[in-house]
Every structure is written in structure tokens, then in C-alpha cells.
Amino acid sequence: MAKPVNRNYSRTARDASALLGAMIRAARLHRRMSTQELAERAGASRSLVVRVEAGDMGSGIGAAFEMAAVLGVPLFDADPGLVNGRLAKQREVNSLLPRRAFPTSVKVDDDF
Amino acid sequence: MAKPVNRNYSRTARDASALLGAMIRAARLHRRMSTQELAERAGASRSLVVRVEAGDMGSGIGAAFEMAAVLGVPLFDADPGLVNGRLAKQREVNSLLPRRAFPTSVKVDDDF
DNA sequence: TGGGTTTGTATCATAAATAAGTCGTATATT
DNA sequence: AATATACGACTTATTTATGATACAAACCCA
């Protein structure tokens, strides 16, 4: 790929990645599942499981989320089954949003 | 890389990725920020922003989480600042867990 | 304690992800 | 309506992530 423009991750992003990995590891051990077994069930390699659990920022979203899904790790809501509902709701919200971010003369600094 | 073993993502994983993308998009538009501007702030390319918002499973965890962090999108808790605390707590829990998943004679099928 | 197993790290090739650029179109704003 | 801009879809070159493998060490159970 082209060289990534900037790979200085913020603390929040790093913590989030580490947290996801830690949750996956906890769930795996709780189920007494080996890294090898998780790898197979998630359709990944054992190497990748190890890296994701370590909180590696370079791993793919799909791989990490799939591992979480296999183990039942809650990603956004408590219940994994609720993710679908939240997605639908979020899409409704987005459909009401402007589709482009035009520069407005009227300053909209809506965070306070 | 080596050829990915299996790339059939589960519904949950796909929905989670799509939800994350939708939340990022919502936050970006709410702040009237262009894809270009988000890209710069997150240290990524505009192409990547578009893909992440579309819920692409192949995008890196770091890139997606960084975008979310820049926009203040809640990843696990409501407040982004709480991620650090949750990480610490999760690590405490993990330190008490067995470090290896050995096959036990006593079946532990603890999900019901 | 002994023995079989899991795990983490390192390395390597190669497929895939990324950045950068262009183009056509949709869409806010005036 | 006119206009300026953001957006999404492509394409291409380059870098990175991934899978496979090997090894040493840590670990858990008997």
C-alpha cells in the first residue's frame, strides 16, 4: 500500500484496541478455548489471534470483530443480537443528516 | 501476506463494522467536517475514511478507532475518557484468569 | 516433579490494504 | 437556477498485514 500518512495513534484509540483484545482474551480463556481453536472458528491464523489479543492496531476490523462475535463479546450493546437493531436505528438517523459537509457561513460549533 | 484462511464474516461482525462506520459518519457530518478533514486529523487518507464509513471489514482497527476517537464517537462506554478505566479493570480481571486454556477433564460448558 | 500443551516471539513470502490521484455526479448554498 | 464543493468509485504503486512455520519458555494437570 502507499505509506500511511500518520501512524501516531491517540491514547483513546490505543486503549480501545487494547481493551478489545483484553476482552477477547478473557472470553476465550473463560471458555477454555485455545488460540488455535479460536483461530479456526474465526477463520484466521493463530498468529493473528495472538496479535489481536495483544491489542495490535494494525489488525483488520473484520478479523477482530469476528473473533469477538465467535466468543460473544459485546461490541456496542450488551447483547450481540442488539447490534443489528442499533445499526438500523443509526441508519435512520443518518438518512436525516445532510449527505455532505459543506462549509457554512454560519458557524456551527455544536460541541460544548 | 499469506492468503487469508477464511473471510466469511458472521452477521454480527458485519453489523458491528457497519454500525461503527455509520456512527463515524454521523459524528463527522454533525460536526460539518469533510472526509478530507477527518482524514488529515486521523492521519489517514480520504479513501480510507470513505471505506471505513462504508463498514469495510478490511480496514485496520487503528485507523477506524482513531477516526472514532477524533470525532468523540463512544467505542465501548459512553464517554471516551472511560475507555482507559475499563481497560485497567479488564486487565485486572485477566490477571486472575488462567493464562492457558488447557483441556480439562471436567467439562466446563458454561453458557446456558 | 514430570510431561504434554499452550503460548509468545521471530521470520519470511506473498496477498491485501493503503495513499494518492482523477473523474463524474450529487448536493448544499447563494 | 447557477455554482462551487464534497462525495464515491476507480486505478495504480507501494507498503503493510497475514498465514505459515519453528522455537523456547511458561504453564497446567496428573
Brief characterization of the structure:
2 copies of one chain form a homodimer. The first copy, chain A, contains 5 helices and no strands. By secondary structure, the first copy, chain A, is mostly helical.
Descriptive report:
Two copies of one chain form a homodimer. Chain A is mainly alpha-helical and 112 residues long. The first copy, chain A, contains five helices and no strands. In chain A, α1 packs parallel to α4, α2 packs across α3 and α2 crosses α4. The radius of gyration of chain A is 18 Å and the shape is globular. Chain A starts with 10 loop residues before the first helix and ends in a 17-residue tail after the last helix. At the A-B interface, α1, α2, α4 and α5 of A face α1, α2, α4 and α5 of B. Chain A binds a DNA duplex (30 and 30 nucleotides) through α3.
Please outline the major beta sheet of chain A: none
Structural class of chain A: mainly alpha
**Intertermini distance of chain A:** 39 Å
> Which oligomerization state do the chains in this entry correspond to?
homodimer
According to DSSP, the number of beta strands of chain A is 0
What is the overall shape of chain A? globular
Q: What fraction strand of chain A? A: under 5%
Q: What percent of the residues of chain A sit in helical stretches (DSSP H or I)?
A: 40-55%
Rg for CA atoms of chain A: 18 Å
Number of helices of chain A: 5
Largest Cβ-defined interface: A-B, 70 and 72 residues
Which sequence of SSEs, written as H and E, runs from N to C of chain A? Answer: HHHHH
Q: What is the averaged pLDDT score of chain A?
A: 91
